[in-house]
Amino acid sequence: MAAPESLRRRSRLLPVVPSVLLLALFLLGPVLWSFYASFTNAALSGKAALNPQWIGLDNYARMLTDSVFPLSAWLTVVFVAVSAILGQNALGLVIALLMTRSGGATASLVGTAVVSSWVLPEIVAAFAAYAYFSQDGTLNQLLGMLGVRGANWLYAFPMGAVILANVWRGTAFSMLVYRAALSQVPRDISEAALMDGARGWQRLAFITLPIIRGSIATNLMLITLQTLAVFTLIWVMTAGGPSNASTTLPVLAYQEAFKLGDIGYGTAIASVLILLGMVFGAVYVRLLRGAKS
Amino acid sequence: MRRPVRFGVALLGVVALLASAACSANQPQANDKKTIKIVYQKTDSFTALDKVFQDAKQEFEAANAGVSVDLEPIQANDDDYGTKLALAQRSPDTAPDVFYEDTFKVRSDVDAGYLLKLDALLATWDGWSAFNESAKAAGRGDDGGIYAVPLGTDTRGIWYNKQVLQKAGIPVPWQPKTWDDILTAARKMKAADPSVVPFNMYAGQATGEGTVMQGFYELLYGTASSLYSDSEKKWVVGSQGFTDSLQFLKTLYDEKLAVAPADALDPNVWKKVFGEWLPQGKMGATVEGSYAPSFWQKGGAYEWAGYAQDMGVARFPTQFGQDPGGVSMSGGWTLAVDAKTKNPDLAFKFLTTALSKKNALAFDVNDSQIAVRTDVASDPGYQAANPFVKDVSSLVGVTHYRPATADYPKISLAVQAATEAVITGKESPVEAAAEYDASVKKLVGDAKVVQK
């Protein structure tokens, strides 16, 4: 009886085999290659392009003395913390909460407005954000109508601009996750709390949030990983400038690998980025486990 | 259970489709037809080369039955073009047979094994003797062999709008003798009309090589210092000339004689220089290449009928007017054959077709290049191409070439970073120069730098 049972279970995995193979080929393969290349001096041109040498940890040691890398790592953390964990996450939750209370027409109108930025391809969203913040852009024209002369936002506040752009673009995802999660909160529990005299914020903090804790952790994990990898948005808006003031790790890795042709150092930065993502991932997985038990 | 099955079926479909696509891609190789692949750059404002290759393709296919030429233009700026080309060259499956190559990348790409040594093939081509000697050197590798054949070269000078200068009471033709002459004239223009940008020089990382080729090097090579010591084969650090050059940029930008720093850091600023500010008389002068008329002439990206009357060219002066009294920088592009090509003879034959006198003349005229073939240079059609051919060709006498070693692209970026730090006010010229020295030492190692 046991043998057919395990056969059945294994045959259930059969349909996913092609996707696992494709993932291994196109995702795991490049990741492993990039990890390997980070220990070499592989380059786009010059002698190292012909015969890359194994140089051990030199690329990683170089990060410690590089003046841009620490700044870039810090900007990445700020970008993730402010635009994803604070911005998208909190704003998405607030919008979702407000939508559960508002009427159907308002809710669907707000929902459409928020989601419309999310359905745009990243490059289109990036150009839209550029057109909004640039010197002669929408924002400054609106300010001009009010008689205020706006700053050159992309130059004076590059991080602020890309963070706002990422919040604008990504909030829809958190909002959708939280709308789904909030609809699962049993009404009778909040009603019971209401009867016990709990105020609105108390019901939110002690009833709703603990119930949707699993969704919060999942959402945080997904938006963190997404935001860590944001490249197009920043590249189009500021290209990492001025003077590296908005160079996050993906931008730095691109510059080193493709603009300077130093594939080895670029892949080392990419490897650090992957490690950073894994650390965040591990933290959230622990949170998820805690939520389930 | 149904969903995964359907998903699996869909995936199988995708795999089957990919497999069939791969099969059909293999088919042309089955019969005897040979294909050579040409990779080059094409942009909205740079179509001259595309035209030359279209013509060369027709000529070549007519003369060589059974060979087809596959033109693969890459739509990108210079930096991205170089990156895409290098990525394609890494694998024999994607490498082109003939490609368009920047002179300053030749040596480094020879080291990388991308370029085929052409000496034996050049010996069989009578057109090679028509190239002038200094141009032949543009494609020379460190071992003395020739790896690339130049299409044309360029020089750089000051392009000024005569009307803006005259309004400020500066007599034209204008020829500043020292750096101070430039500042004096720029201040006059600013005083006469505060809304004009009197004298622009590119700076910052956004304009890439433009920052150094049409900006910083005109300054640095006009001081007693240089970027690289050719005799010692070492990079120069700690030079007074480097700090002085940064100081000049700082003065230009601080006194608002150049564009606003925010504009300078826009990678598309050159489009405004050519397309708006100079034609509309909102800019007095800028340092730009001999190819400038290619933008304004008929069919150019920013057609401007009056450019021949309104614009003038001047030599960029040395710091204190010392000999030789001017500075220019030269670069230019070449055609090369990939070392991995399966048909080196055919590839080289196509290269010679594209660089024949007729095609080289068409390219040099349409792209406002300085001719490298002596028979093109003496052609009346070339000399009449635009009113500035004589002026910009004379700059060859005071021109310099970049030290095109494999380290150069990184050094160039360090220079660009130094200019950016200075014009944004982040660092003083002395601080930025010190940081440049430190980065150079880190990039090439203490053994390859020399203190001057």
UniProtKB/TrEMBL annotation, chain A:
Keywords: Cell membrane, Membrane, Transmembrane, Transmembrane helix, Transport. Its main location: membrane. The keyword Transport applies. Signal peptide: none annotated. Pfam families: BPD_transp_1 (PF00528). It is a multi-pass membrane protein. It is found in: Cell membrane. The chain crosses the membrane at residues 12-36, 73-98, 110-133, 153-178, 220-243, 263-285. It comes from the Bacteria. Residues 74-284 form the ABC transmembrane type-1 domain. Coiled coil: none annotated. Belongs to the binding-protein-dependent transport system permease family. This is Carbohydrate ABC transporter permease. It comes from Arthrobacter methylotrophus.
TrEMBL record, chain B:
It comes from the Bacteria. The keyword Signal applies. Keywords: Signal. Coiled coil: none annotated. Residues 1-21 form the signal peptide. InterPro entries: Bact_solute-bd_prot1, SBP. PROSITE patterns: PROKAR_LIPOPROTEIN (PS51257). This is Extracellular solute-binding protein.
